[in-house]
Here is the input.
Amino acid sequence: MKEYIVKKHIAINAPVKAVWDALTNPEKTKEYFFNCRVISTWKPGSPITFKGRMFWIIPVELKGTIDKVDEGRLLQYTLINKGDKSKSTVTDILTPAKDNTILTITDDVGQGEGAEKRYRRSVKGWNKILNGLKEFCEQD
Here is the structure.
């Protein structure tokens, strides 16, 4: 069976603490994550919601659950995909490097009907998100 897992990494010229804050602070996520605020208590088992308006007109609300948190190092959550109710599991790993932070993201979009379409959409989305996150973190 074919795996539909997006795997991306990016070097961000900012300390791990700043990148972590940009990933978990709702006022910062809205700047690069399709104008969505992320809402969570960041505790395993707690809800996570991305809510906003893409292009300022299309309402977006993604809901899921926090799976794992190791502050400043690892964040994993599962989102329920609208429409077919499949699940996507996203894992963010932050690795300090000499002068920057390496952020590695995997997004397992699941199997079954629509997986290939979700995968293609996810690849495009993560490219935009990661480039926006890098730009946001490096502007300070």
In short: Residues 84 and 114 are 8 Å apart (CA to CA). The beta strands are 5-12, 36-40, 47-54, 58-70, 74-80, 87-96, 101-108. The chain has three helices and seven strands.
